[in-house]
Amino acid sequence: MSSARKDPYGSFGFKVVVKVDGADAPIGYFQEVSGLSVQINVQDVVEGGLNDTTRKLIGNASYTNITLKRGVCDKGMFAWIEKFLQGGKITRLDGSIELLDDSGATKLTYTFKKGIPVKWDGPSLSVMQDAIATETLEIAHEGLKIT
Predict the structure, then answer these.
(1) pLDDT tens-digit profile of 75-121?
(2) Can you list the alpha helix ranges (DSSP code H) found in the chain?
(3) CA Rg, the chain, in Å?
(4) Contact yes or no for 62/38 (Cβ under 8 A)
(5) Is 45 within 8 Å of 37 (Cβ atoms)?
(6) Are 59 and 42 in contact (CB under 8 A)?
(7) CA 49 to the chain's CA centroid
(8) DSSP 79
(9) Degrees, nearest 5: CA angle 81-32-27
(10) DSSP states of 23-78 as a string?
(11) Which of 45, 107, 144, 145 has a beta carbon 3.0–4.6 Å from 55's, enabling a disulfide?
């Protein structure tokens, strides 16, 4: 029996695709995603006469901003923020981040709700470096679901 197996989550064994508002076409393929995080806030309450513990009251959830990174390939990532910069309104969009295996099949999907772009970083350009120009988009959102 062979011990070799195909691991879709191994190093460089996936592609990241981001789609917004259920569109068929993704807004991009990304090399790195960070900020897929949720925290349940807890408040400590000291109860008089109870010296061996503090009560923990459960609060609301908070979500870290999602950061997407990729090599510069077009101006599509900047377009969402550009609408706001030109005097328009930033549209809140639902979106999903899909992990694809080497065959292109979706293995895992992270869905965010009411996302808004809050930061875009263009590439650092230097003639002294021999590196790929990368750009970063940061998205604030109001909820995360994994399917």
Answers:
(1) 777 777 888 889 888 788 888 888 877 777 888 889 999 998 899 89
(2) 76-85
(3) 20
(4) yes
(5) no
(6) yes
(7) 45
(8) H
(9) 40
(10) -SS-SEEESEEE---EEEEEEEEPPTT--S--EEEEEEEEEPPEEEEEE---SHHH
(11) 45
Contact between residue 66 and residue 111 where contact means Cβ atoms under 8 Å apart: no
Answer yes or no: are the C-beta atoms of 37 and 62 closer than 8 Å: no
Find where tokens 């895992």 sit. Answer: 108
What is the domain partition of the chain in residue ranges?
Answer: 15-146
Closest CA relative to residue 99, chosen from 11, 16, 10, 3: 16
Q: Using the structure block, give the residue that is written with the tokens 């870290």.
A: 64
Q: Residue 48: exposed, middle, or buried by beta-carbon count in 10 A (0-12, 13-18, 19+)?
A: exposed
Residue for token pair 């993704």 = 26
Regarding the domain delimited by 15-146, which CATH topology (the fold level of the hierarchy) does it fall under?
A: Pnp Oxidase; Chain A (2.30.110)
Token pair listed for 33: 């995603």
Q: Say if pTM beats, i.e. exceeds, 0.70.
A: yes
- The single-letter code of the amino acid at 59 is G
